[in-house]
Amino acid sequence: MNIADLNEWVSKKNSEDNISKNKDIKDAEEIIIEKTSENAQNDAPMATYSHSRISSFEQCRLKFRYSYIDKVKTDVVRTIETYMGDLVHQTLEKLYKDLKFEKLNELKDLIEFYNNLWKENWEEGILIVKKEYNQENYCAMGERMIKDYYNHYKPFNQAKTIGLETTDYFELDKNHRIHVRIDRLSSPEEGVYEIHDYKTNSSMKTQEEADTDRQLAVYAMGVKKLYPDAKRVKLIWHMLAFDKEVISERTDEQLDELKISILNQINVIETATKYEPTKSGLCPYCEYQSLCPLWKHLFQIKDKPEKEFTKDDGVKMVEKYAEIKEKEKKLSKELEELSNNIKLYGEKIGAKTLFGKKSAITIWSKEVMKFPRKTDVERTKLIKALKGLNLYEKFLDIDNWELEKGYDNLSEIEKEVLKQIGRKEKLVRLYLRERK
Ligand code: SF4
Question: Which of 188, 245, 276, 313 has the fewest CB within 10 Å, making it most exposed?
Fold first, then answer.
């Protein structure tokens, strides 16, 4: 594999779903362990969590460690997807902010605002993982999302805006609080609240995903705490790339269960002692990739010129290992064919041992019953039969091989029952030894 191949391989690790998760990086920056005013006096720290922080732990413990425990400073990788998403968010925020002041922007003004933001904030280091697309493609994508949204919701009087890009906290228990950051919180009628989340990723959220989504459900918990008049809280994802909404809602019971599961997960986080890396489609976007044991070697070699790259000890060993493995694969195929031929030849001449110059091969064969393995669909039948014969403890908890070896010693009735599940197979083994 040359450097170009390696780079391409890294790029291919991208997945659309994961792009959206990068939006959470913004939220993650908000996460701190701090003291609230009440408990500051007795020195009891109140830990602040967010959906992003908990997700980060679930996605990759090592990344969580680098980020939240070791607080490793890196040059943050800013992807073009995050960049475009941020600017679309800022544009929609402007739209609703101005509406609060009775100013309805024309679409062309909003597009101009977005394009200006794009030009003013663009930096060379912004990462484009999907090499087949360029800056213009992404900028146009964001522009289309704003246009579609604008035309869909104009004149934007569906609900009263309560908050934009909110930053709120609510207590989960006396030691933990949760950070809530809502793109737009609105209320279409008395007692009904809507949490709007703008998604710019190019994979559509399914209803099932929405009904099991934790992030907005956590926000719903927050809204119910912060606004006691909230009888219903609707969760609305605006899938901007598709000009579609996905809507969901949670019952009070579901939110109570969610609270328990979050507290349990926080307990796992706070008692964790191991932080292993978890490889996923998020790795190409991870700012710690060059430190991570799963990738650091790639980072050490990827920018080396071909000549130096091939001299690297790690590269040489990987290449050698792959070469030997390939040979091993070929040889084991050859060996299998040869074993078969030896067996057939032995049968043909009626010999159980074949002799070479320095070696001899003894051909051992026995007809045995074969039974379904753990992954076979028929396995449940076998378990049922063995339980019925009171043989389950004796064989199945031990091993298939034990059952197959012990089959001949079973009673005729037992053999008859098990015969229906197993199949006869001839086992042949070749034992290579030195000729005496
Ligand atoms: S590169 Fe991947 S495995 Fe390594 S820390 Fe980052 S997310 Fe985890």
Answer: 313
Q: Structural domain of residue 339, as residue ranges?
A: 312-349
Residue 70 resides in a domain = yes
Structure pTM? 0.67
| Ligand 1 atom nearest to CA at 283 | 2
Q: How confident is the model at residue 398 (pLDDT cuts 50, 70, 90)?
A: low
Question: Exposed e or buried b for every residue in 369-386, given b needs 16+ CB within 10 A?
Answer: bbbbeeeeeebeebeebb
Ligand 1 centre to CA of 293 (Å) is: 8
For the stretch 21-37, pLDDT in tens is: 333 333 333 333 333 33
28, 111, 160, 185 from 243: Cα distances, Å: 27, 17, 21, 19
Burial class (CB in 10 A: 0-12, 13-18, 19+), 270: exposed
Query: Ligand 1 center to residue 296 CA distance, Å?
Result: 10
245-297 tens-digit pLDDT: 999 999 999 999 999 999 999 999 999 998 999 999 989 888 899 999 999 99
Domains contained in the chain, number:
3
Q: Write down which residue in 285, 304, 328 finishes a domain.
A: 285
Provide residues with CB under 6 Å of ligand 1: 60, 62-63, 277-279, 282-283, 286, 288-289, 292, 294-295
**Is the per-residue pLDDT at 211 higher than 90?**
yes
Whether 218 and 340 map to the same domain: the answer is no
What number does the ligand 1 atom closest to the CA of 59 have? 7
